[in-house]
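Lab notes, practical 5.
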Amino acid sequence: MCIKSEIKEKLLRKDDKINTAVLRRDWFRESELHQKIIDITSFLPNKVPLKERIFCILNDITERPKCQICDDFAVFLPKHNAGYSKTCSKQSCRSFISSDKRLQTNITKYGRKVSPKTIQKASERVSSLNQKGRATLKEKYGVSNPGQMHNHNSKVKKTLMERYGVDNIHSMPSS
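Output from the prediction step:
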């Protein structure tokens, strides 16, 4: 009998999920099937759960999958027979994949990297921040623009002299 059919017959429930109650039994741990599963999946580390080993056999996986980003080992996701993730457990790799997927979805849906809704929210935020900034300037200094403050121009000239040796931004040599 083929190992796949033996696993399907003895270890899977009717809904094709692994019957973990059987895997915990002493008689199963001492069985020939258990040993075959361990031997066939010898490419996996010793501490890997039996569920992962069974998944590898049923899906013809003969080497441990690697992260698409950093080439470390991918994470096994035991719930819902999801298999292996595309990445390792590092946050940087997981966020790279999800942000890349989001960008691809936006390009497909909207023809650009950012959705129109996001652009609208950003412009509303900028507008409210401008209004808030102007209100603060009016409240604190009695002006609606920083250029209207009494010592603003002298501070700008002083900073330009210290940093660039000129007193006017238009006097700077072009690079």
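Observations recorded by the TA: The helical segments are 3-11, 20-23, 26-29, 32-40, 50-58, 91-110, 116-141, 152-164. Residues 1-64 form one domain.
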